[in-house]
Write a structure and sequence with these properties.
Rossmann fold, 4-stranded mixed beta sheet, 23 helices, 10% strand, alpha/beta
């Protein structure tokens, strides 16, 4: 688990808001994603029914999670897939390293995988003399520029055409500068093809793992995922334990929801179903397939019935596309692997509230994320849970780091407020004091920060009770 104590979210947000080019890039991209989603989900009633189905499938799988994980391991083993369990990201990284070392491998071609980002796998392997090569076009671009993904679906969404052209020109030898999209794609394709040929191991994520058949399902548009899982002699798949579904027949509605929500497509270009290594007589495919199932705090989330809903996420990214906060500051401002609304409820639970609880405050509570979530995760409700637990008293909280915001000044302020509103005499005196000071409220502490962008609150000259009494109405 990475240490994010040094993340300065407020500073990151200010920097992002001051970057006019970044905001322009996101405004264009987010508008495009929203429009494409509306086009593919053009019937509200049908869409709602599909979301209900998706929610039911994920909830049913989570209700049986321990048994389904055991079934998946059994089926995968029968199919020839070697299963490894990892409680932490350190254990998962070690599994990858040991598999590679057993084959004397020094290169790995990676398909897109948010779990590998969660593991910080590239940096770990680099420290052991192994080259991890990103092959997803967006991941490839930002890896060249030594950056991390800004979006869970479109990693380089924060870059425009001119910026990408400059990156390819500066980081790929003998590459001319061009802003022609076809030429840029051709340059990347030529470079990546050589990486596929040389890779000794291929690594991918897993969109869905089917317990019934021991099948790993991967969706993609570029073909790089298929190259990573078929060309190298060894394939390693990494997944969070929540990616499981019970039956193969449950995949179609989930695929429909995932691709429509993520990229506005009816279906992706490639849907890969991996059930075993290469069999006798088959002409392609890896000779070995390994599946690493990562926990990294998910079991703790699973133990709480409300927080468990976080694990329904299918990583479509549509909550990011519709979030008024994310679309203005981008993914890097969050300082964690998972940005946007899903990151605001997942990161605090995995990393702890003291490290990531501030993310839960970066929300307008407009409910846009919940309205578009394909599996109906109640994100605003969970955000309120994160905020409440940040101030939890004693053992009333369950999330790591709960109560970290609790402090004596706020405790005293709320006790005074409660006393003022439960004792008539104190309330009457307090109202008179507030009315007398209506133009003299001190701009200090939290009030000073709050009023930087807001009109300072101004107590009324008279209370409602006073005004009612003055016009002769019995207010009792």
């Amino acid at each position: 688990m990475a240490n994010h104590q040094s993340v300065d979210f407020e500073k990151n947000v200010s920097r992002a808001l001051d970057d006019a080019q970044l905001r322009k890039n996101f405004k264009f991209a987010m508008g495009s994603f929203i429009g494409k989603r509306k086009a593919v989900f053009d019937d509200p009633d049908e869409t709602e029914q599909l979301r209900i189905v998706g929610n039911a499938i994920k909830q049913r799988a989570l209700s049986k999670l321990p048994a389904l994980l055991e079934q998946l391991e059994k089926k995968c083993t029968e199919n020839g897939i070697q299963v490894h369990w990892a409680e932490t990201t350190a254990e998962a990284n070690q599994h990858v390293l040991e598999i590679m070392q057993s084959h004397n491998a020094t290169t790995v071609a990676k398909g897109k995988s948010m779990v590998s980002e969660e593991m910080h796998l590239n940096k770990f392997l680099q420290g052991h003399g192994i080259e991890a090569m990103e092959t997803d076009l967006g991941e490839f671009i930002i890896q060249l520029n030594n950056e991390t993904p800004s979006h869970i679906i479109v990693p380089a969404i924060h870059k425009n055409k001119e910026q990408i052209a400059k990156i390819l020109h500066e980081h790929i030898p003998d590459t001319p500068y061009t802003e022609d999209v076809q030429e840029l794609n051709a340059i990347a394709r030529k470079t990546l093809r050589q990486k596929f040929r040389n890779a000794q191991v291929g690594l991918s994520g897993v969109n869905f793992a089917v317990a019934e058949t021991g099948t790993l399902c991967l969706v993609e548009n570029e073909g790089n995922g298929r190259m990573c899982t078929t060309v190298p002699p060894v394939h390693i798949a990494v997944m969070g334990l929540e990616k499981i579904v019970e039956k193969l027949e449950e995949l179609p509605p989930l695929l429909r929801l995932l691709t429509g929500s993520a990229t506005g497509q009816l279906i992706t270009t490639y849907v890969n179903m991996i059930t075993s290594p290469r069999k006798a007589g088959e002409k392609d495919g890896p000779k070995e397939v390994h599946l690493i199932i990562l926990d990294n705090g998910r079991s703790e989330i699973y133990a709480d019935t409300q927080r468990r809903q976080t694990l329904q996420c299918i990583r479509c990214g549509t909550c990011l596309n519709h979030c008024p906060v994310y679309t203005r500051i981008g993914g890097h401002a969050y300082g964690f692997v998972y940005p946007g609304p899903i990151g605001k409820i997942l990161n605090p639970q995995v990393e702890g509230l003291e490290a990531a609880g501030v993310l839960a405050t970066a929300s307008t509570m407009c409910n846009a994320c919940e309205e578009v979530c394909p599996v109906k995760i109640p994100i605003p409700e969970l955000l309120r849970r994160m905020r409440d637990e940040s101030y939890a008293e004693g053992d009333t909280g369950t999330i790591k780091g709960h109560g970290y915001k609790r402090n004596l000044p706020e405790i005293l302020v709320w006790k005074a407020w409660a006393m003022m509103n439960t004792h008539p005499l104190i309330n009457a005196v307090g109202q008179k004091v507030m009315s007398a000071m209506r133009f003299k409220l001190p701009k200090i502490g939290p009030l000073k920060n709050w009023t930087r962008h807001r009109i300072p609150p101004q107590p009324a000259a008279k209370s409602l009770h006073q005004m009612v009494k003055e016009i002769g109405v019995d207010n009792e």
